[in-house]
Structure formats: C-alpha cells, structure tokens
Amino acid sequence: MYTLALATLRRNIAFFVVVLAVVVMIEMMMHAVGIVALVFSGLTMLYTHRMIQLNEVYTWSDPLSTKGADGSKIPIAGYILRFVGIFMILMMLMTGAFMTLSVLGFASNDPSTSDVAQTILGALIFMPAFACVLGLFGSVLPACAERSDTSLRAAFSRGKATFAQFVPRFMAGPCVVMIVGFVVMGQLEQVVHSETGLIVQGILFAVATCFSLATALLTATALSLSFLTSRTL
C-alpha cells in the first residue's frame, strides 16, 4: 500500500503540490483551519482513486482537471456528498469514543499530557470501529470515482469479500498517520503558541495539510486496492 501510494504521489506530484499550496493559501486568508483541508482531502481521495483505478496522470499543464483521460466529467459533486456522509460517521464514532473516555474518567490532571493521552486512547476506540464501517461500505467511494455501482448492497458485497484485507491496511496506514498528525500538531501548537507571524502560521498550516493529504492518499489507496481486488474474486 505504501509503495503504491508513493508511486502515485510521484507520478502526480503536480496535483499534490498544487492542492497543498491552494489549501494553505485559502486557510491563511480565511482562517478556516480544517474546513478547507477537509474539502480538499475529499478531492484528493477522488483523484487518487482515478489515478490508481484508471491510470490517470495529472500534470503541471492541468493538475486539477475536471475531465478524465477519456474526456468524461469527473463526478466531483457525487463523490463529495458520499465523502461527507462517511466523514459524519467518523465524527459520530469519534464523539462516542471521547464521551466514553470522559464517563470512564480517563483524564489527566496535567493539561500538557491530557490532550495527547485522550487523543491516543480515543483513537484506539473509534479507529477500529471506523475501519470496520469503511471496510464494509467504503467501496462506494472508489466505485463513484469511476462511475460504477455505488449502491450500499453492492458495496456491502464487495466489503465482505475484501474486509480481511482492508482493515489491516487501514489500521497500518491512514490510522497511524492520523494519530501521528494529531500528536505532532498538538506539540507544535504548544511550542509556537505565542507566535502569530505569517511565516509561523504558514508552516503550521502546511504541516497540518501534509498530514491531512497523506491520510487521504493512504485511505484512497487502501480503498482502491480492495475495490480492484473485489473484481477478481
């Protein structure tokens, strides 16, 4: 999975560089930390599916093309709607995990370690649950990317066939990057808390966006691999 993700990144470096630059610039102008990155994470996953499943390459001449190699329109709206739906499930699972920790009293009296500990413990609860949901129904995303059958019935059928392959990939890839990103950003924000310069803000936005896009790239890669595998079963 990591090998394929890195190969996809190298072949389409123009796309990922442009997305990174656009997200950082918009977030610095709008101060909408996270919101813009979320939208572009969805777009990154959509284009990554097409890069892997349809062998499309996005060059510097048109890194954010809205048309595929065959001239057909890329289903951006349909994909984003499904992406947001899955993201809402993630948010509900995350909220449930942290509520569980709060009820059980897993909190530190030291503010400097409490957030990190809560993040790690919460991730250990909601990530496996989300991996199962995504493993069973997540193929609606790669299916939508290439305009295949996006019904939940078809997704569940594909998910059952590739579940044992997808979950370990997801836990060893996107989950690890996501947790590392939470911890690193938490530490960086504490270190530069008193700094408000544009350069410092730009660096923070860039680092956060890199983790966000890396998570999206690996998630899309894992989903595409399972989607392609389901065709051979």
TrEMBL record:
<feature type="transmembrane region" description="Helical">
    <location>
        <begin position="166"/>
        <end position="186"/>
    </location>
</feature>
<keyword id="KW-1133">Transmembrane helix</keyword>
<feature type="transmembrane region" description="Helical">
    <location>
        <begin position="12"/>
        <end position="40"/>
    </location>
</feature>
<feature type="transmembrane region" description="Helical">
    <location>
        <begin position="119"/>
        <end position="145"/>
    </location>
</feature>
<feature type="transmembrane region" description="Helical">
    <location>
        <begin position="83"/>
        <end position="107"/>
    </location>
</feature>
<feature type="transmembrane region" description="Helical">
    <location>
        <begin position="198"/>
        <end position="228"/>
    </location>
</feature>
<protein>
    <submittedName>
        <fullName>Uncharacterized protein</fullName>
    </submittedName>
</protein>
<keyword id="KW-0472">Membrane</keyword>
<keyword id="KW-0812">Transmembrane</keyword>
